[in-house]
Automatic annotation (TrEMBL):
It comes from the Eukaryota. This is H/ACA ribonucleoprotein complex subunit 2. It is found in: Nucleus, Nucleolus. Common component of the spliceosome and rRNA processing machinery. Required for ribosome biogenesis. Part of a complex which catalyzes pseudouridylation of rRNA. This involves the isomerization of uridine such that the ribose is subsequently attached to C5, instead of the normal N1. Pseudouridine ('psi') residues may serve to stabilize the conformation of rRNAs. It comes from Kwoniella shandongensis. The keyword Electron transport does not apply.
Length: 238
């Protein structure tokens, strides 16, 4: 038996669906026409706008990173500042570093701590000076009683290759030295500390990098030259 042919009614429905789909589908404009040029300009404009937005976003990120670093450094400086009353400054604190030099000294102390060329506290400093260590001795001027460290300037004067200077705050000195407690004195040594081999035969810990040592040496030489130019605490304005 032959299959039934499609009815005229069904054919009309199919034609109607095809025409509706054709009406809904967008028809691209012919090349060379004004409509085609307008579409091309619109696409290029969207791409340029997206690119511009991306560049602005990247610029904001880079600026935010820079501002963040500056803000962090400023916050650290502000955090490290301690107010020391004038009557708390020891009368024997001479030469006394000013604010500008103090900041340089504390940065040098941080570098020395990182490079493991720093002696902290009276016992370590006295031991290092008697062993002939050379460097820069920093003393806190608000230590009470001052007798705790009053003998250190004399030891520094008797030792060869040692300069000394007083800073206002024991709290700032301790913070720069990487300790949670206030510190009465630190000695920045010019020579790197000798690293002993572990007794258990394990590998020795990695020492400071050449870059860290070079930065410390340069910073130490700079502050020592400034310390030598200091005369008396009366010449320092706070």
């Amino acid at each position: 038996m032959a299959p039934e042919s499609t009815t005229p009614k069904k054919e009309k429905k199919d034609k109607k669906r095809k025409s509706e789909v054709a009406d809904l589908a967008p028809v691209p404009p012919a090349e060379g026409t004004a409509s085609a040029e307008a579409v091309a300009m619109e696409v290029d404009g969207d791409k340029a706008l997206k690119k511009q937005k991306k560049e602005k976003k990247e610029k904001r990120k880079s600026l935010a990173v820079g501002e963040g670093e500056d803000a962090t450094e400023a916050a650290d400086d502000k955090k490290s500042e301690f107010v020391v009353p004038l009557d708390a400054i020891s009368p024997i604190a001479s030469p006394l570093a000013g604010k500008k030099l103090s900041k340089k000294l504390f940065k040098t102390v941080k570098r020395a701590s990182k490079a493991r060329q720093l002696k902290r506290g009276v016992k370590e400093v006295v031991k290092a000076l008697r062993k002939g260590e050379k460097g820069l001795l920093l003393l806190a001027s608000n230590i009470t009683p001052v007798d705790v460290i009053s003998h250190l300037p004399l030891l520094a004067e008797e030792a060869a290759g040692v300069e000394y200077v007083w800073v206002l705050s024991k709290e700032e000195l301790g913070q720069a030295a990487g300790t949670k407690r206030a510190t009465s004195c630190v000695l920045i040594c010019t020579a790197p500390a000798k690293r002993s081999t572990p007794k258990d035969g394990s590998a020795a810990k990695a020492g400071p990098s050449a870059e860290d040592l070079a930065e410390l040496k340069s910073s130490l030489e700079e502050v020592v030259e400034e310390v030598k130019k200091l005369e008396s605490p009366a010449a320092i304005a706070y």
